[in-house]
Amino acid sequence: MYSSIQITYKAYCSEGYYGSDCRAHCPGNPRKCVVNGQTYCKMGWTGRNCDQDVNECNTRSFCSHGNCTNTAGSFRCTCPASVYGPKCQLDEDECLFEPCNGGECVNKIGSYECHCQSGTTGVNCEMLTGNSCHSNSCSYNGICTFSNGKPVCQCNNEYTGTDCSVRNFCRTNSCFNGSTCVNGESGYTCKCPKWLSGKYCEQADYCVSSPCENSGVCINVASGFVCKCNNGWSGSFCQSYNYCNNVTCSNHGTCFNGPTRFNCVCNSGYKGNLCEMVQFCNASSCIDPYVCIEAHEGFKCECPYGIAGEKCDRLSHCLRNPCGRHGSCEDNNIGYNCSCHDGWTGNNCTEINHCFNNLCQNGATCHNSEFNYTCSCKPGFFGQSCENVDHCYANPCRHNGSCLNHVTHFTCLCQNEWIGQRCETENICFTSNLCVNHGHCFQIDSEARCSCFDGWMGINCTTKDYCYNSPCGQMGTCHNFEDSFLCICDPQWTGRNCETFACENSTCVNGYCQASNDSLFDCNCTRGWIGPKCDVPDPCTNLTCENGGKCKSIIYPNNSTSTLYGNKTNTTYIASAFCSCSKGWKGVQCSIDINECLKNDTCHGHGICNNSVGGFSCDCLNGFTGLKCETNIDECLSSPCFNNATCIDRIGDFSCSCPSYFDGERCEKDVDECQYFVCGSHGSCRNMFGNYSCTCEPNWVGRHCEVHVSSCSVQPCKNNGTCFDVDDTYFCLCDNRFTGRHCDIDINECKTHSFCRNGATCVNTFGSYDCICPIEWEGDLCETDINECISNPCPLNTTCINRNNGFDCQNCSKYLCMNGGICHDSNIGPICNCTDDWVADNCSQKNFCKDGPCGALQLCVNKKNTYSCEYHPCQSIPCQNNGLCVEHGAEYLCECQTGWKGKFCEEIDYCTGNKCENNGTCRNENSSFFCACSGNWFGDRCEIYSYCHNDPCTNKGYCKNAQDDYICICQQGWEGKTCSKFNYCNDLPCMNDGVCNNLNSTYTCTCPQYWNGKDCEEYNYCYNSPCHNNGTCVNGRNSFSCLCPSGFLGHSCDVVDQCLSGPCQNNGTCLLNITTSSYVCKCHGGFVGEHCEKDRDECTTDVCPAKSTCYNEDGGYRCIWERRRRRETIIRETKSGVLELSKFINTRGSLTKNIVTARRLIERAMCNSKTSIFETTSLSFESFPKTDPLKYQADVIISGYHNKAVMSSVFGLIKSSTNVSPCPSFFTSDLCFITLALMFVFRTLTIMGLD
Fold first, then answer.
1. Which of 637, 910, 1029, 1222 has the fewest CB atoms within 10 Å, i.e. is most exposed?
2. Which backbone phi and psi does 1205 adopt, to 5 degrees?
3. How many CB atoms neighbour CB 587 within 10 A?
4. Distances from the Cα of 325 to the Cα of 304, 353, 357, 590, angstroms
5. DSSP letters along 692-703, please?
6. Pairing mode, if any, of strands 653-657 and 662-663?
7. Distance between CA 939 and CA 339 in Å, rounded?
8. Distance between CA 805 and CA 823 in Å, rounded?
9. What span, in angstroms and rounded, lies between the C-alpha atoms of 1251 and 542?
10. Which residues contact 599 (CB under 8 A, 6 or more apart)?
11. Residues 16/30, Cβ–Cβ less than 8 Å
């Protein structure tokens, strides 16, 4: 016998735990845990940062039998009465209290129901039926009496119940500690309070309240309980977390646990929360008694005022406060630096810094002086503080345009030929007569357009609008041509101007009139009539063309009936008809099938042709497909080649072209490249899937260890030293700043050379040196004298003269005025009053401009030994009408007053006052103004809006402005508001009298009956619903096919599928005979019979070898040797949370072992997991052969687990028949049910002798 047991469960992790088995611990953050850089969301949270709450209530029936309320990171299930559990998944079994007084109790979700025995009634079967006592009212010598007018039974001590039919096992009540005795069929049970356990409630269960926190396991002991805590937790209730768990204090200290965190006490020489930092301070770090303070990668001594140095070992250079009261002194090893307060400057902060408030704007440079400051402006700015912007600085106006500077912007005055903000765009409307005096010209950017006058049209208004006066009247639409117009008339009107009503005297008998091109009329006949006057019956109404054939009529005059009326002949007509057959048919009514297979190339030589009614089919050879076997099947479409190999298609087959590193029919085999000695003699090879790698010997590199590495490749020479490779070593050539084998030793230039000048101090640095200059010198080598006069050091009424190593302050007592100049003291120092022949501050410059040697519009400028003349065009005062002259090199520009324009401000500006509306541009023109309108306006002042400005009419449609809108006159074949909708019905695409419907991008045809297809070109074979039994008809080219529903087959779904019900048992194959609508079963090995229902007894033949016994089994047999090894039990975890156990079971012991093993698996999964909810989802037990009655017992267990009402009905039998001790304390009721169910299966096997 074969059997298998499978248990499925779900586990929800407790707080602080995560992972598929809830074993990983991560307390603290309630939402997430970060381990090795990876973020894990805890139960109830999701999202990239685990900040989104999981709404468990979105899962259907999450709270089984209760109401679900979502909370942040969790959920709450509100259970109805008699239902309990974290997810309301457990139902309290009221039947355990035997409430039905001898009746049968059936448990239900949240309640129960009593099925009373004959003679009793009521909710709990508590009343006798009827209103009188009978001899059989009370069983077992019970006495029937009356109470409140109703019969009741008084039972003796051994029986109880409404009718005294229940054996009273509780009469010898042995339940302790006030527990409740519950009577049963063959005994009693004690209903214990929550804090008691045991058969008689004699044992106290101290763990019932789950006192152990943080998933600790509670264990009952004689005097109470103890908690077995998980790693990281401690305390009587596992309430304290051991924060020192896995904390090493960097192996430099000892960890002590605290109430909320750990504390590391570090060893000498270390510090930090984890003792991870080195402590640099020691007893000798600073001169006693000064304090040492830890700093980055070192220490710092806290020196008192006046003491300095790394170890507080010298006096401070700031001791005498050299920076005064306007600066802060900073000591260094060679002196001090002054950090001046705001508003002060100088080496010792003794000078006022007038530049402190940065009064110079726009990036200007401030120059400080004794009493004031000056600003050096950047190009494009001017003013005392460089506050004004010269927007014209970069000459933004092109094509000789004049730039006018304003406070926040500039404007360009353009020549008449140019427009735009910078005069960059040609004024096309000025340079060309674009609109030929038939319209207004307006320009947008570089594109000029015309707004035509009435009666003109075209891009340049050169085409006369012949339709302007509506020559076609109300019965036609006018279309312009180059020199004339054309009227498209309404259907019943004709004539050049649509002035003639052509149908006035029409004689259309069975149709309606429509004008023709020759000013006459035509008749459009109704269905069933033809002829010039629609008076001839259509013979096609009496001719049926079969199989998609189309009837065509031929009409001709009937000369035999023509009569003469006056000067006119009255001619009558007759008609005949014939069938134009569709493909595959011929004959008068298209009823004869054409045999297409008579042609040799019907199936292209790649298949066998089969003629059918109205068509044919091809049975294609291997490797070909298609209606005519015209397509070669590409076997490469399924990507049969592995590892990026190239597939080559062949006829009915394929081949694979393998890439490097792979081999085999489908390139599925890895090539061992190492067998070809690919790493040479300096490396070892390691094969990998689809590749290989070489491990090289020292000094050898490369893909195949083929490159020898030179000694210089590791760059041993430092500080830009040059490396030279010599055999197996190297040497370094250093520059003049470093020395040593690796050029890593600094040369002290201050000892080998004397670079610093003027008494400077040389200080060596790594790779260079610095010169510390005396106060009077500066520069890299202190070679430049400092101009002390820049800081205005001299007092009032004196002038500063710079000298080497200092400066002099002079007044008239010391200051020399040359060449007869007279000195006068002033507030800014001595001033020289020079004679006419001399100029400059001290009268040292010869005045060559004395006699005015320069011409008109020139200014004379003195040079050292001569003079120069500078040209200034504004000297001629060229700007009229109070215009301002602005010079630009040798040119000038006139900035005119309001109301004037022109190069010299000589022209009146008629555009003053912004006469043009709607952003139109005003132009002066012939003693007046002209408005160049923007793209959507026209009129003298741009006051009229042009709805046609964007050319809304597409496809060469002509746009006309109307009141508050525009009108598009479309070309033939186009329609719609903007002529954008193509009239796809214009060419009458619908065949066979189909009606054309024009759409946005295509058309559709409404076909008459019997026809379908896009253009009504296909005959509708599905019209008469040929498919039976709700089959779906699919129309084909020459016939139809049916998609049959389940249970039906055949061309028209008229054959019943007898195999649908699966009559063949034991995996037998059902073969259907469509012709007879019958079936036969093809049985597989081990079974025979009409429906494969009988097991074949293979043991009747000699099938087993010697020294073995044959045992017949369902669908096969087994040979058992006298001595054989038992097979090991197969237990595996099929996926996270699913444990599966299976075994060939032959003896009671093996089944017992399986049951015990399954139970231990459940216990181990529960004990090892840190779970808060343990929820089983399924239990299955199967036994073969299927005729074994154990199968039905197992079905009871399976259905009983999912229906607790059924499960509870066998619960008492389970406990009484198995003699099972109570479940472990950590088992949930769900888990206890499963374990007891497994033991019930075992008990059933034992009773039936099937183990």
1. 637
2. -65, -40
3. 15
4. 20, 15, 20, 123
5. EEEEEPTTEEST
6. unpaired
7. 72
8. 28
9. 85
10. none
11. no
- Give the Å distances, CA to CA, from 68 to 57, 145, 582: 6, 52, 68
Burial 656-693 (b: 16+ CB within 10 A, else e): bebeebbeeebbeebbebbeeebbeebbebebeeeebe
Those residues with Cβ within 8 angstroms of residue 840's Cβ, 6 or more apart along the chain or in another chain: 834
| Residue labelled with tokens 């596992």 | 238
State how far the Cα of 24 lies from the Cα of 268, in Å rounded to an integer: 35
Say if CB 1210 and CB 1203 are below 8 A apart: no
Express each pLDDT in 64-80 by its tens digit: 888 899 888 788 888 88
Q: How many degrees, rounded to 5, is the angle at CA 566 between CA 561 and CA 568?
A: 60
**Tokens (6 digits) for 478:** 């006018």
DSSP string, 1078-1147: EEEEEPPTTEESTTS-EE--GGGS--S-TTEEEEEETTEEEEEESS-PPPPPEEEEEETTEEEEEEE--S
pTM more than 0.70 = no
CA 449/CA 159 separation, integer angstroms: 116
d(CA 44, CA 32): 10
Distance of alpha carbon 959 from alpha carbon 952, whole angstroms = 7
Mean pLDDT on 711-737: 81
Contact 289, 276 (CB under 8 A): no
Q: Rounded to an integer, what distance in angstroms lies between the CA atom of residue 940 and that of residue 942? A: 6
Give the separation between CA 611 and CA 620, rounded to whole angstroms.
14
| pLDDT at site 342 | 84
pLDDT confidence tier of residue 167, bands split at 50, 70 and 90: confident
For 199-259, the DSSP string reads TTS-EE-TTTT----TTPEEEEETTEEEEEPPTTEESTTS-EE-TTTT--GGGSEEEEE-S
CB–CB of 277/298 below 8 Å? no
Task: Give the 3-state secondary structure percentages of the chain, helix then strand then coil, rounded to 5.
Answer: 10, 35, 50
- CA–centroid distance for 588 within its chain: 66
Helix (H) or strand (E) holding 1229: helix 1229-1248
- d(CA 8, CA 1142) in angstroms, rounded, equals 14
- 3 state DSSP class of 1198: helix
Q: CB of 121 within 8 A of CB of 115?
A: no
Closest CA to 1054 of 1083, 1079, 1080, 1025: 1025
Tell me the per-residue pLDDT of 650-674, one tens digit each, with 9 for 90 and over. 888 899 999 888 889 999 888 888 8
Taking only Cα atoms into account, the Rg of the chain, rounded to an integer number of angstroms, comes to: 57
Would you say residue 1235 has pLDDT above 70? no
Beta-bridged to residue 917, according to DSSP, are none
For the residues of 967-1018, what is the DSSP string, one character each? EEEPPTTEESTTS-EE-GGGG----TTPEEEE-SSSEEEEPPTTEESTTS-E
> 278-328 pLDDT, tens per residue?
888 877 778 766 778 887 778 888 877 677 888 777 777 887 788 888 888
Structure tokens that stand for 788 in this block: 């002390």
Distance between CA atoms of 624 and 630, rounded to whole angstroms?
Answer: 7
Kindly report which listed range (340-344, 542-546, 1180-1184) carries the lowest average pLDDT score. 1180-1184
**Token duo for residue 1078:** 């019958």
Give the Cα separation of 603 and 127 in Å (integer): 89
Distance of CA 665 to the CA centre of its chain: 41
DSSP per-residue letters across 842-856: TS-EE-TTTT--S-T
Half-sphere exposure of 123 (CA within 13 A, CB side): 2
Q: Are 672 and 664 in contact (CB under 8 A)?
A: no
Per-residue pLDDT of 325-336, as tens digits, reads 888 888 887 888
pLDDT at 204: 77
Distance, in Å, from the CA atom of 144 to the CA atom of 148, rounded to the nearest integer, reads 13
